[in-house]
Amino acid sequence: MKSISNIISQALKQCQPSAEDVEKLTKVAIETKSLVSRYISPKVVDVVFGGSFAKGTWLKDEVDIDIFIKIDNSVNDIEFGHLGEQVGLQSLKGYNPYLRYSDHPYVEAVINGIRVNVVPCYDVLKGKWKSAADRSPFHTEYIKNNLDDDQRNQVRLLKKFLKSVGIYGADIATGGFSGYVAEIMILKYGMFESVLHAMSNIGVENNVISIDKPDEYSIKNFESQLIIIDPIDHRRNLGTAISAESVGKLVLAARSFLAKPSFDFFIKNEKKLSENYEGLYPNLVIIEFSYKRRSPDVIWGQLKRSLNAISKQLELANFKVIRGICVTDQQETAVFVFLLDSVTLSPYTEKIGPKIFMRKETANFILKNQEKSLITWVDNEMRVSTLIQRETTNAKHFLKLLLTKKIESTGITKGLKGDIQRLFRIYSGDDQTINGLAKEAVRDLITSDERILQ
Known about the structure:
Layout: H1 4-15, H2 19-37, E1 44-50, H3 51-55, E2 64-72, H4 77-91, E3 98-101, E4 105-111, E5 114-123, H5 136-146, H6 149-165, H7 179-189, H8 192-200, E6 208-209, H9 216-220, E7 227-230, E8 233-237, H10 244-259, E9 272-273, E10 284-290, H11 296-316, E11 321-328, E12 333-340, E13 348-355, H12 359-369, E14 373-378, E15 383-389, H13 395-404, H14 414-422, E16 424-428, H15 436-445, E17 447-448
Parallel strand pairs: 2-5, 6-7
Antiparallel strand pairs: 1-2, 3-4, 4-5, 7-8, 9-17, 10-12, 10-16, 11-12, 13-15, 14-15
Helix pairs in contact: 1-6, 2-4, 6-7, 7-8, 8-10
C-alpha cells in the first residue's frame, strides 16, 4: 500500500496547472476583462476578477473565469439587474453569450474553450451587503492575502477529493462544499490531510469551523450539521448550503482515505451496483414529467422541495420511503424515483388508541373510527385498538390520485404543479424497461460508493 504522501504527490500532479495552462488562462482573462472594462461608467464603478482564477486555487482543466462588475450602490435593484445583463451581453457579444440566473441574472460565454461569467455586484463597504454577490470581491481579497502557494495546492487537493466523492459545489443540485469553503478549511487546518483528520472526528459538539474566535450567540442560531463561519461576515454560516448527506459523505470518505489511502479518491468514481440490484426494481416508483425551461438553481430547488413533499405524503399513507431522488436534464425533463419498502400494502391496518383509563380520549377514538372500523378490541396493554380498511393499497394509484385530484394539498411547489398536471407518467421498476434520465436516477439511487465504506 502506498503512503499518503506518495498518493498526495501523485494527485497533485493531476490537479496543479502547468505554466502553459496559467499563461493560456491569464491571456483569456485579461483580454475578457478588457472587453468588460470598456463599460465602466458612473454607474459601473469597477471591474475585478473573482473566483478560483483570481485566488490561484483553480484545478487543471477545470476552471471558470469570474469577472465582477461593481455597480454604484445608489442604483436600484431593477436597474442593477438590467445593467448586469447589458454590460455582460454587450461586452461578450462576439462569443454567443447567454443569461444564467442565481439571485440576479448574470452572463456566461465560452471563450477559447474556457467558461467566462460576468457577474454584477454592488460597490459596497464590508458588511453593507445589498446583493448576494457583494461578498465575493471581499472573499477574493481575503483568500489572496492569507493563502500561501503551498496552501493553494492543498486547496486543489481538497477540491479534487471533494469532486471525486461527488460533493463539490454549493449549487442546489449538489448541496456540497464550495471552492471558498475548501479554501477556508485549508486556512483553518493548514493541510489537506489535516482537514481529513478534522472531518473524520466531527461530532454534535464538535462541528464548528471558524478561523477567528466564533460568536457563541450566532452559533446557537445556526442549525446546519456543519457550521462554517465566513471570516468576512461572522453572521453568515457557509455550512447552510451543505446538505447533511454531503457532510456525512465527507466524514466517511475522510475516515476511509486515512485508514486505506488510495489514488482512487482523486479520480471520478463509478459506483458499483450490488449483485442483487434487480431485486429492488419492483420496489421502485418512478414519476416522469416535462416542465417549462427555467434556471438550474430554480428547477433544482423546486424539485428537491417537491421530492420531500411527495415523500411525506407517501409516509402519511403508510408507504415507507427508504430513499428518494430527483434528477433533471436542466432542459425540460425531470424524474422523481422512490425506493419503497413495498409498493403495495395489506388491505387492512391497525390503529392503536389510548389506554382505557383515559376516558375522554378513549370515547373520542372510538367515535372517530366507528364508521371505518371492522373490529375494535382492548389489547394486552389495555389500549383500545381498531382494524380499518385502507383507502389505497398501491403506491402508484395513490400517487396518481395525489398528482391529479389532490395536488393542491401535497406541498409540491407552486412552480411545478402546472408542469406536473399537464402530463406525467407513473410506473414501477418492473412495469417496463427503465431508460434515459430515469435509468440515470435509478442507478444513483441503488448504487453505493464502496470507497467511503471501508
